[in-house]
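New here. Invent one.

***
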Amino acid sequence: MSTRENGSEEEPVIRDNRKIDPETGQVRETGPAEGTGQTAQNDKEQAADRSSSLAADLASIELATQLAERTADLQRLQAEYSNYRKRVERDRVAVKEQAVAGVLAELLPVLDDIGRARDHGELTGGFAKVSESLEAATGKLGLSTFGAKGEPFDPTVHEALMHSYSPDVTEPTCVEILQPGYRIGERVLRPARVAVAEPEEPAADDN
């Protein structure tokens, strides 16, 4: 007698895992085990999506930070270059003014001689034309004279060579211009050399 006939061995269990029912042709419903596996798969996919989204956000933040740093660096370089250009331009103007001032300072004695010749009526003929051309040329370079009789004494632009008292003045006054002053723009090239008079000293009180 066989083992099967004695009932000592259980009948084999056969599971049909086909998703399509061969008799009806309909899609079979997923069993509990399969549904659980599908849920786990969905969870994994969602976790992967969240991880990918987080990585994309971090990359975007890092890119924005780098862009801000590069923009700040560019702005700083632009400001430094602008300041450099301004400084070079100031230095260029200063060097030019200094060079012009040096040349004109050497011509001041010649201009003084021309002024004295004019005061004595000796500025005539060809010498007069040369002097006029020279004065016009120095004027174009920015040279101008200052110092006039009767103006208040200013120690920043006047150099007092003579001093006296006078009842005709109420404050220290330039009563004579011994040598005119010269300036280039606001820069004094040579102060005016003058004679200064002050108001008379009050009489001493005998009492």
